[in-house]
Amino acid sequence: MADAVDTGRIDPVVTAGSPSCPAGFREVMRTLAGTVGVVAALDDRGRPVGMTVSSLTSVSLEPPLALFCPALTSRTWPQLRAAGGLCVSILNERQQDLSRQFAGAENRFARVSWTPSPGGMPVLGGSVAWLECSVVDEHRAGDHHIVVVRLHHTGSSGGGPLLRHRGRYARLAAPGGEV
Asked: Alpha helix locations (H) across the chain?
C-alpha cells in the first residue's frame, strides 16, 4: 500500500448523495459552466423562431458535430426541428437580456436584430460566434432530447461568451490571468 502524500492543499468537503435525488444531482451539475446560445430557424411561414440553450457543446471535429439538449416539454423545439436548417448564435457576455427573452417571451424576436446565415437562418446581432447546422441525430434522454447537429457554416466575431454557472449568468475572467 502506498503512503499518503501531503500536497499542502485542503481537500474539498465531500457530501455523499444519491444520483437518483434530483435536487442533489442538479446541485452537482450546476458546478459545470455552460455556454449560453440561441438556437434559431425560420418556420414554415418564414418567421424566425428560437430558444435559449445552455447545454451546448462540441462533439467531433471530423465530421464537425455539436450538440444541445432541449427539454421534452419545449414547445419551440418541434418548430425548430421541422425547419430543417438551424443556426446557433453563441451569446456574448452582455446579452443576458436576450437569453432571458428567448427562454420565455411569446414574441422572442421582438426588437432583436439578426442577419441571415449563408443558408438563410437567423444569426443574432452581437453574438460572439454562430454555427449554421442541420440535425443528424436525436435521442430522448430522461426529460430532455439530445440533438446532434452537423455544422455547415460558422462565424466568429470574438469577445467573451455568456455562461451559466450555479444557476446564474457568468463570464470568463479578464484575458491574461493565470489559472
From this structure: 22-29, 77-83, 96-104
Map grid coordinates 471530423 to a residue.
Answer: 62
C-alpha–C-alpha distance, residues 146 and 40, integer Å: 16
DSSP category for residue 103: H
Q: What does the pLDDT read at residue 1? A: 46
- Dihedral angle of Cα 50, 51, 54, 55, to the nearest 10 degrees: -80
* CA nearest neighbour of 36 among 77, 109, 91, 74: 91
pLDDT at 78 over 60: yes
- Residue whose entry in the numeric block shows the C-alpha cell 471535429: 61
Contact 161, 90 (CB under 8 A): yes
